[in-house]
Amino acid sequence: MLHLKRGINIGDHFEDESVHDAVFKNPMQDWYYPLIRQLNFDHIRLPVRWSVHCDDANGHRIDSDYMDMVAETVDKFLDMGLSVILNVHHFRECAEFPDKPENTEKLYALWDQIADRFRDYPEQLVFELMNEPIWNVEAPVWNRVQTGLVNRLRQIQPDRWLMIGGVNYNGVERLADLEVPANDPHLIGTFHYYLPMEFTHQGAPWTTQYVGLHDIRWTGTPDEMRFMNANLDLAKAWSDKYGLPVHLGEFGVLHTAQMEDRANWTRAVRTGCESRGISWSYWELNRNFGISEPDRPALRQPLVDALLKD
């Protein structure tokens, strides 16, 4: 029986833009496994950028060595008794779905191969169909693509748990626009939560609107809590409407914010989810938002306590 409750993302590894694993920003390190087990997470989310590891001139064939590396990592976590959420991450081609039908076919071809490779895996392996369809993909277009993908995967894996999410980077406010395939009890809705972005992404160098921000506070004022609770209520309402579980796939605060505020916000999101029966995967283990130092198992204890201390 699949049971997701508390999980962690392995960030900046397989979703790295590089095609060479030796220069990934965050190469998989042996200490990840015992640390994650020690902290009693019950699942990991494994983001994978398949789209730069395939031969588009040959039916989008995924590089076999890359597929083997992903499978080896999945196997290690499953062997530890953890569930694994495996996704398609950073599929930038989705921005041109309406104008380039071949991009839809590429997504389908990738999932055909993934589903075939992991055909006989236990239900503890969950397929998340796409991470964060970006802002300029309209909901009707994405719904058509995603529903088609669900139907296609059901021909290969009729009972696999599939995570489906909405547009605008899996924004919680866009769950309401999500078309849910009928009569499929093995679906999980997913959303991401980084609000307010001015706080969680202050100083983020990969942005234009937040890179210059600093000293933005979050202290859990009544207004801040009302805003957060209203958003989490949207996810709970979606789950209640469809009778399906919902999962928070990413949430976290960049290291540029004050640690006390990071911990307070993280605890508020975590407890808000758990009080509503929403499972979660924190972003991330050991990079910019991480609960550990990048190169060694040195925990940032306030964040760990915010996530795991009841």
Topology:
Elements: E1 6-9, H1 32-38, E2 43-46, E3 54-55, E4 61-62, H2 64-79, E5 83-87, H3 101-117, E6 125-128, H4 139-154, E7 162-165, H5 167-170, E8 187-193, H6 197-200, H7 222-242, E9 246-251, H8 259-275, E10 279-282, H9 301-308
Helix pairs in contact: 3-4, 7-8, 8-9
Task: Describe the protein's architecture and organization.
The chain is an alpha/beta fold and about 300 residues long. It has one domain: Glycosidases (TIM Barrel, Alpha-Beta Barrel). Helix content is about 35%, strand content about 15%. The protein has an eight-stranded parallel β-barrel with strand order 1-2-5-6-7-8-9-10. A two-stranded antiparallel sheet has the order 3-4. Strand 3 and strand 4 form a beta hairpin. Helix 8 runs parallel beside helix 9. The chain starts with 5 loop residues before the first strand and ends with a helix. The model has no long low-confidence stretch (mean pLDDT about 95).
Number of helices: 9
Report the CATH topology name: TIM Barrel
Total number of domains: 1
Mean pLDDT: 95
Biggest sheet layout: 8 strands, parallel, barrel
Low-confidence stretches: none
Instruction: Provide the succession of SSEs.
Output: EHEEEHEHEHEHEHHEHEH
* Strand element count: 10
- The CATH architecture is Alpha-Beta Barrel
Structural class of the secondary elements?
alpha/beta
What gyration radius follows from the Cα positions, in whole Å? Answer: 19 Å
In which range does the helix fraction lie? Answer: 25-40%
